[in-house]
Design brief:
The structure is a homotrimer. By secondary structure, chain A is mainly β. Chain A has a single domain, classed as UDP N-Acetylglucosamine Acyltransferase, domain 1, CATH 2.160.10. In chain A, about 5% of the residues lie in helices and about 30% in strands. The longest helix of chain A has 8 residues, at about 270-275. Chain A is globular. Chain A starts with a strand and ends with a helix. Chains in contact: A-B, A-C, B-C. At the A-B interface, loops of A face loops of B.
């Protein structure tokens, strides 16, 4: 074992010889840390958590109790000796009960709620949050600053661009004629908002700055600036007409009206865009 | 440690010196009990459960395996030394996999299903049941004899009065123009019934003795005695006209037709009201 | 303890004397195995899992970390000494975080996702899969080759015949006038498909070869070959007219178009029926 200074490892934790720890690492009671695990500086792992082989965790990341990080997938149980690696970036907060499979890449400042499940072969950007009991099924591509709230289901092959909000109990599907082998993932573009309980049918494209109303069952593509609602969902408004009911002011596109924890916090979207040289 | 008579603590449990145990307390294998925890008489904590600091648990409460009771919140990870306390009353049954945060007050005769999550700063009355995988997001006020069935989502700032039934996969929201900082909790009045899969939009008020039909998407306030259904929900009946399909008898207001585990069990609602001097 | 050859038991696992192990059994760190448990040959139990008393697990079954197998039910906490037994067949793959109660019978080749919950007194056939966070409430009858995807709710007294597909976030209810004591389970016949987010009302019968569209709220019985959609659900097509959008070919009844992991894989449904002498 290679270990930095000031590490605090519980006496009854089970730790493989081949792990590498930075400075100030804390490992709680009843943890199991398997071989070829690397933990950065200031990493905290709370009690009862298992970190599987070939996992790399960045500095300042904190992992709650009873998590499984780098979970086995089917190959393991079939006796196939794969060398899949899970990378989790810096400054993550992974809450208790979360299960993350091997063979995914997760950026910096990641967060999960409790009992979240993230399957294999997913690519997740920076500043992404995955809520309590949300189930990301693997082989998904997720941009930066995406927030999945509680209990969202994301089918394999979904693609979610940056700055997207997905609220509780949203279901994102992928099979147009279930059961079949013909999977067609949903694509959600930047700045879209999917409100609670909405259901997105396979293969649809949700364009930028659109709003899927709570409980909408979306059966076809949604254009930019559209608000759709109902079952099946129909366009009910242009998003630029939607007002905040309390203040009476325009509420959308939200990127001009909301900035908490966004890269344009305190300076506004336009100035941030200009300064960052980024493009939508 | 202060401990009563006949306690049964597993040899490998990790127990802080500062805890206080009543009589006949059982603590299972692999448990971790942190400092300033007080457990009443006859408390049972099954294996692998963590009880965080400053938790107070009443007599006769039983906690299943792999729970986290008094879970840390963000402050903890940010190094802020708060002294939040979780109180759980007498005679609770907290089933395995449940996570309850610190800084909530929970009454007597509480129950949870499995993998339930209850966040911080909630006030929960007596005889409340929170089903499997239900997610109560914190800062909620919940009365007595409320039953949340499986997999209900309850947004922050929701208010649920006493004698309310909330069935599986109900979603209770709080943000009228997501994403925003303008949260408006739903209010559900006594004796209301929210059937499976219903979705309640932010800020609406569900009046007493109403019935939200299964799958309804409720976008505006619901009056007393109303039955609403559909997406968006519309009034389809007066609840006093709804019959039990088998017996042909009136089924609502349910408080006159159902009494299992209610305080009027065996004596009827009217007599109980009269005797208890309570008012609706 | 009776144990076969080549068993590999973690030093800190807690194991009752009365258990019986086949050959090549592996028991991970921090496991608790209670009395009267029998594990077949090649069984693997990963770390932190609890196997309760009177559980019988068949050969080649693999159980992930942090599961509870043979969970106590209310009787236990009330001090009643029941002798309920859980039987799990051969070659199961029970993924981490799953909770299965005592007093159920589960066939061979069973699978679960993560955090699944299966309550007591259920009868589950062979080749059944129960997805991540799916909640089967007990006293259900489930045939062979049934697939519950993620986060499905199945009320007590439901009956699901063989070769049925139930996709994510489906809710199956059982109380026509909630709250009541008059439970009426849903019945789903063979070869039916319940797409994502659908909601089935109490007591309805879903006939063979029907398709419940995503998000449908089904309030009455569904006939063979029907496709129903909407809230409330209405018949929108005959299933035999539904085409695969990519290939333009018929997609249903799916048993003629899909065979992965089905007993007719590679030979076609008709030939399999003829050879097996089975009847629909």
């Amino acid at each position: 074992m290679i270990r930095g200074i000031n590490c605090n490892i519980a006496a009854n934790a089970v730790i493989a010889d081949s792990i590498e720890l930075g400075d100030n690492v804390t490992i709680g009671y009843n943890c199991v840390i398997e071989h070829n695990v690397t933990l950065g500086d200031n990493v905290i792992i709370e009690c009862g958590t298992v970190v599987r082989e070939n996992t790399l965790i960045g500095n300042d990341t904190r992992i709650g109790a009873n998590c499984i990080i780098g979970e086995h997938f089917m190959d393991y149980y079939n006796g196939i000796n794969t060398q899949y690696c899970l990378n989790i970036g810096k400054n993550a907060l992974i809450r208790s009960g979360t299960i993350i499979y091997g063979a995914s890449d997760i950026g910096d400042n990641f967060q999960t709620g409790h009992h979240a499940v993230i399957r294999e072969h997913s690519k997740i950007g920076n500043h992404v949050s995955v809520g309590t009991m949300t189930d990301i099924q693997g082989t998904c591509e997720i941009g930066d600053y995406v927030r999945f709230h509680s209990n969202v289901f994301v089918a394999p092959n979904s693609k979610v661009d940056s700055y997207v909000w997905i609220f509780p109990h949203v279901t994102i599907t992928n099979d147009p004629t279930p059961p079949s082998k013909d999977m067609r993932g949903v694509s959600i573009k930047s700045y879209a908002v999917i409100a609670a309980g909405a259901l997105l049918l396979p293969g649809i494209v949700i364009e930028e700055d659109s709003l899927i109303a709570a409980g909408a069952v979306v059966t076809k593509d949604v254009e930019q600036f559209s608000v759709v609602a109902g079952n099946p969902a129909k366009k009910i408004a242009d998003i630029r007409e939607v007002k905040n009911k309390v203040t009476g002011e325009s509420a959308y596109p939200w990127r001009y009206h909301f900035d908490r924890a966004m890269p344009w916090e305190g300076i506004g979207f336009d100035r941030w865009m200009k300064e960052s040289g980024d493009s939508i």
